[in-house]
Amino acid sequence: MTFSLHGLAVSSGIAIGRAQLISHAALEVAQFQFHEKDIPGELKRLDAAVAAVTADFEALRAEAGSAGNPRELVAFVDLHAMILADPVLTDGVRALIEERHCNAEWALVQQMQEAMAQFDAFEDVYLRERKYDVAQVVERVLRVLQGKPRRVSRRKEAVEAELIVVANDLSPADTLQFKNQRIGGFVTDLGSATSHTAIVARSFDIPAVVGLRDARALIKDDDVLILDGVRGVLIVDPDARILDEYRLRKTALELERSKRLRLKTARSVTLDGEEIVLEANIELPPDAERALAVGAAGIGLFRTEFLFMNRDDLPTEDEQFEAYRQVVKQFAGKPVTIRSLDIGADKEVRALRSRTAESVACNSALGLRAIRFCLTEPQLFLTQLRAILRAAHYGRVKLLIPMLAHVQQIEQTLALIEQAKAQLAASRHKFDESIAIGAMIEIPAAALMLGPFLRRLDFLSIGTNDLIQYTLAIDRADSAVAHLYDPLHPAVLQLIGKTLQAGRQAGVPVALCGEMAGDSKLTRLLLGMGLREFSMHPAQILEAKQQVLMADISRLEPLVAKLLRLDEPDKLRALVARL
Ligand code: PEP
Ligand code: MG
Fold first, then answer.
1. Contacts of 322 (CB under 8 A, 6+ apart)
2. Is the pLDDT of residue 255 over 50?
């Protein structure tokens, strides 16, 4: 039966494919012990379930192997069949049934948890990720045991075989683990458009919708899905007519996208001759390639905390230096803005868990995050600063500090940067003595008190994701209040406008690197407000350039000035749409 679910579109495009559920099997099983005489019966039940799933995999493999399907799909089915055939999994379950008289479902879940913990211990990220495969295999067996076998789709029509990940919720670190896999799209029950999970999903450049509420419960593995990342809609089990319609829309979108590629080398300049800088946000060094492929003018935000995730230790100074230098060299003289560690809130670093834990127990978005954390851990901060300063020797690096709000924090940070330089000089390392230092403006207090920032720093970058969160007191990761998270709230626009104006008057460049920068519906508004430096996901750069090329700032400025005087959101929104 066809049905649709509506959520928040976080990354545009259309995917047509099959559901790949991220398992929460452990939450769903009954747990009981039975009498010794029932052991053979329980083992038989287990064997029958395993046999049924093995047969399912064979059928799926035959289907996946048909012409036109990506190789990944066959490999994915093979891997799952292998996990199921591995006696380590089934022997452990049998032992729990025989020795502890656990029901088969409970035994399976216990064995799954043990296996997942073992995978967690692997250094290698790829191997660690395999724990999700174990969970998915176990979930299939559980469903058979529970009398809810997974339907193996044997549809005759050729359904595109992309995999669409369906999850209840994922941390940014979890999401990052999918980066190297070929996935067609991404949906989650929870989350909001500027949560870091959404930001990571967006960086995959595949359609993603979050905040769907019940997707995980209503969708089964292998269900055919259409994911419309433009409208924030997920269509489950579509009929042939809807599929045809969406195939056409998908082709049209892809055509538009490939046409936009022609803009890669076009100068980013408005109709009235203003040069606009369009830079890229990246999470990891390999993202730099995508930024170059769309002609990014530089890196406006390198979120270095992602180098610290999905590992049990901290990256050393040399390891960080190599990662930063790789990007700096790729950008050969173009600016690379490296932000110092911004962990805390939803961005968890395993190796630092105990040091941020107290804060996590409270409202972590207001806790020991970003620079506040770094100032309490000077050795860790100095290590990163030295790595950035050394990488800066190889190109044009700007150092960006997140979450500054107090004058003392600026001063302490500058003192630590000087200390890092002195340490490098003493150890005869090459580094950039005159590196540009800037602050994220993402706390309302900073936007309201720009003087010390403008006097002490070389540049500013507005982080609207957090600025909106703190101005409106809306947790950016909480789907329950996502509808109140409003970039066009007049108070937010005032803070952005004031920051741009103050920067212009002081001759200090101000960029904007929050998600607002990449929303092409807001490009004209931001140009009219005075923004000249945008930093966004690489996938958004060419669409933004298209907007820049059609914009006439001298026409936009008076309209925007009028619009900013409005305090009625509906009127304001209508005017923004007409700009
Ligand atoms: C922001 O807050 O707008 C920002 C760019 O930083 P992050 O999303 O990493 O918090
Ligand atoms: Mg931020």
1. none
2. yes
Tally helices (H) and strands (E) across the chain: 23, 16
Annotated catalytic residues are: 196, 513
CB 505 within 8 A of CB 456: no
Atom 1 in ligand 1: residue holding the nearest Cα: 463
What gap in Å lies between CA 308 and CA 341, rounded to an integer? 9
CA of 481 to the centre of ligand 1 (A): 18
With contact defined as beta carbons under 8 Å apart, do 472 and 495 qualify? Answer: no
Specify whether the CB–CB gap between 25 and 205 falls below 8 A.
Answer: no
Dump pLDDT digits (tens) for 224-240.
999 999 999 999 999 99
Q: Tokens representing 51?
A: 């046999």
CB atoms within 10 A of CB 325: 21
Distances (CA, A) of 196 to 115, 283, 317, 484: 28, 11, 25, 18
* Cβ atoms of residues 226 and 242 within 8 Å: yes
**Ligand 1 center from residue 253 Cα (angstroms):** 28
Kindly report the protein residue whose alpha carbon is nearest to atom 3 of ligand 1. Answer: 463
Mutate to test the pocket of ligand 1, among 192, 203, 442, 469 (most ligand atoms within 8 A of CB): 442
Give the separation between CA 115 and CA 130, rounded to whole angstroms: 10
Residue whose Cα lies nearest atom 8 of ligand 1: it is 465
Distance of alpha carbon 367 from alpha carbon 370, whole angstroms? 9
Ligand with smallest separation from the Cα of 517: 1
Structural domains for the chain: 3-22+150-239 (3.50.30.10), 25-146 (1.10.274.10), 268-578 (3.20.20.60)
Ligand that lies nearest to the alpha carbon of residue 199, given by its number in the listed order = 1
pTM above 0.90, yes or no: no
Ligand 2 centroid from CA 255, angstroms: 34
Nearest ligand to residue 518 Cα: 1
Q: Tokens for 137?
A: 């295999």
302 alpha carbon – ligand 2 mean position (Å): 12
Q: Which helix (H) or strand (E) holds 534?
A: strand 533-536
> Is the pLDDT confidence value at 150 over 60?
no
Residues within a 6 A CB radius of ligand 1: 199, 301, 303, 342, 442, 463-466, 513-514
| Residue 461 CA, closest ligand 1 atom number | 5
- Residue range 549-575: mean pLDDT, rounded: 94
